[in-house]
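Suppose you are handed only these lines of text.
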Amino acid sequence: MIKIGIVGVGTVGESVVKILEDNKDIIRARSGKEIVVKTGVVRNLNKERDVNIKLTDNYLDVTTDDEIDIVVELMGGVEEAYKIVKSAIENGKSVVTANKALLAYHRFELQNMTDKPFEYEASVAGGIPIIKALREGLSANHIESIKGIINGTCNYMLTEMKKGANYDEILKVAQELGYAEADPTFDVGGFDAAHKLLILASIAYNIDAKPDDILIEGIENIDTIDMEFAKEFGYEIKLLGIAKKDGEFIELRVHPTLVPNNQMISKVEGVMNAISVVGDKVGETLYYGAGAGGDATASAVISDIISIVRGSNAPMLGYKKPLENGDFKLRNRDEIKSKYYLRIAVSDEVGVLEKIASIFAKNSISISNFLQKQGNEFVKILLSTHEAIEKDIKNSIEEIEKLNFVKKPVNVIRIEE
Ligand SMILES: NC(=O)c1ccc[n+]([C@@H]2O[C@H](COP(=O)([O-])OP(=O)(O)OC[C@H]3O[C@@H](n4cnc5c(N)ncnc54)[C@H](OP(=O)(O)O)[C@@H]3O)[C@@H](O)[C@H]2O)c1
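From them, the structure of the protein bound to NAP can be written out as follows.
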């Protein structure tokens, strides 16, 4: 029998307890042992819960309990969770976590701290087994790129905006449906997706980047008019987490992206997640499924528990040794190369286009598509560029925004083909 302790018996924790009971026949057959929850840790012992396990509000009751083999951290947050997971490691426990925020900041420290199994399948894309796919299934490949829809809230909102809903309306609905938090910044600002991207990039490239090191833009400035441009030129707008190898450099970025509507990932709608991974030998592989929800996430958590019980001890981030040719370097965000879409609100005056075009020409940017739409207040110039360098686009925007006839900050969406 294996005894586990669960720190955090909320949405995911409760599902873990229930599935261990509901599916105990298949779990016992697959793991070879009976898995029993000995103790759960919560903040508030008086709260009503759907599960009946022994509870405590002192994490040491779990992390220092000699009978407990595996500590499952399902409380969320960064520093408090780090303290508790560290205590579990120091007491010789194997660890399972679903906590992407913890890993976005501390994954390399945690890896160096433990020689026991440390699993985190549920931390990226909930129920989709993307960690095991990258770390194990694709381990023979150099990873060329990862592109993922890894925040269900944003994907739901963008799907609805394509049907005509406006941003504020649909954010409210997403909150009512429980997809977005009361403070939705973390999702719509792209930070949650960035945490997940950083975890995937560590497995793909052994690169230790933190959220502050990478380009993160959210969906707050997407307008239904951008959807019209996308439709006209055969794109969908998706919030993507992108990791890409270019020689010794790795690009890591999260931003709304125009994706050609013939790519499979562009067809992923609503709260669903999908991740495309291209390996140099396998080619493109695509993973699709529920990125959140108690049961889907618990499915991944329990698969980690089963792996540990079976005795597998894969290196946490997938590497037993450093890369022989040296580490990859993170590409500076100003050096990123992409195609771009820009929305520029101008007053209806003669010479506007010539002036904007001359600024682009001076910064070596060439325009590929162009649309003009009459808005309520201003004329909207919508254009896309051929491949350009981020800093040239930034310089152009700075100059364009200084022009008298430009009435609002320029909006940018990167294009990924
Ligand atoms: N929900 C999802 O769909 C999903 C998907 C993927 C990953 N995750 C990750 O899974 C983790 C858990 O998410 P969740 O949605 O289950 O959260 P949740 O419903 O808010 O549950 C959190 C649990 O942790 C407990 N807790 C919080 N701080 C604590 C502390 N300092 N000491 C002891 N217990 C503490 C809470 O206790 P009380 O019950 O007493 O308040 C609660 O039981 C997070 O890292 C999240 O990012 C969630």
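What can we learn from it? DSSP finds 14 helices and 18 strands in the chain. The domain at 335-415 is CATH 3.30.70.260 (Alpha-Beta Plaits).
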